[in-house]
Amino acid sequence: MMNQQQKTRWVNCRTAIAFVFLCLALCVTGTVYAQSTSKSTAQFDVGAVWNDVDGNVINAHGGNIIYEKGTYYWFGEKRGRRHSEGVNVYESRDLYHWKLKALALAQSTDTTSEIAEGCIMERPKVVYNKKTGKYVMWFHLELRGKGYASARAAVAISDHITGPYRYLHSFRPNGNMSRDMTLFVDRDGKAYEIYSSRENYDLRIAELTPDFLNVTKKDSMLFSNHREAPAIFWYKGKYYLITSGCTGWAPNAASLRVADHIYGPWKLLSNPMLGSGSEKTFGGQPTFILPLGKNKFIYVGDKWNPKDLTDSRYHFLPIELDADGDGIKISWRDSWRLSDLK
Ligand code: GAL
């Protein structure tokens, strides 16, 4: 039997233990909550780790974003530390909060497939074909075990925006090597592949067939200046094209070109990046330009981490359109909101 003093000590001891447990529980839930809501502040913390709404790091590199019925869909390379693992798709209604919807295109366990596990799938771009009602995905494909020697464009198709996408085929467009690439659907509904060719020395353009599943013979050189990572948009009667130099995962200076016609001539303007870090694109590389309506655009880039590609970060930055006479400009922001887009 405990005496009164012992009882009091026991009660105090139990209270202290309960208090310690309560503190631990608060710390743990606090950490989890902070992780899963690190992007819940409705702003872009550029280059920080971005979690999806389930608290996992967003894994969608080198991709594009398309908009349909109030929802944005973000397609991008799913990366393991060193390997390519297919194409992820996320959805969001506000561009800040993203939910992983699916592995839109998986690699195949069939070792004879062109997209067998171990292949490299890069820079996926998805567009909608109004004529066929299908979603079409193009990406840069390197066949398994061949490094970057294959240099092929690959195509997959789906009835549903989030997939699953069915792999169709890969090829070198009109016999040309095709590495870094993007797709662009023009106002008249014609679509184009813009791609780095001839060991990345040439940047080429090929018009796609009406179903967007292949290239036509309308394939020509835009310029030969050893450029890659093309990102294009149209604004007030002109096409703008941002590209990077060719230094692999390492950042370099971007350049901006402008043209009245998509086939060119493309006039070289200056580096569109402004301020500290601009000579190395703030440590990143262009991947895509997201139009918001007619007059607002977001530059999307990747800050690669080749030692652990899953830790590559995202550069979403506002495009400044009022730059006098020298095209558009992009300045670094640690954080910004859509309301900052002018
Ligand atoms: C970059 C390219 C990336 C990836 C990388 C591999 O130049 O833009 O998409 O291919 O090289 O080194």
Walk me through the structure.
This protein is mainly β. It contains one helix and 23 strands. The strands form seven sheets. Strands 2-3-4-5 form a four-stranded antiparallel β-sheet, with no helix packed on it. Strands 6-7-8-9 form a four-stranded antiparallel β-sheet, with no helix packed on it. A four-stranded antiparallel β-sheet has the order 10-11-12-13, with no helix packed on it. The protein starts with a helix and ends in a 6-residue tail after the last strand. It binds beta-D-galactopyranose (GAL). Residues 62, 122-123, 180, 228-229, 246, 248-249, 285 line the site of beta-D-galactopyranose. Beta-D-galactopyranose (GAL) is lined by residues 62, 122-123, 180, 228-229, 246, 248-249, 285.
Architecture blueprint of SSEs:
Blueprint: H1 4-36, E1 44-45, E2 61-68, E3 71-79, E4 84-92, E5 99-105, E6 120-129, E7 134-142, E8 152-158, E9 166-171, E10 181-185, E11 191-197, E12 202-208, E13 215-224, E14 228-235, E15 238-244, E16 255-259, E17 267-268, E18 273-274, E19 285-292, E20 296-303, E21 313-318, E22 330-331, E23 335-336
Parallel strand pairs: 18-22
Antiparallel strand pairs: 1-23, 2-3, 3-4, 4-5, 6-7, 7-8, 8-9, 10-11, 11-12, 12-13, 14-15, 15-16, 16-17, 19-20, 20-21
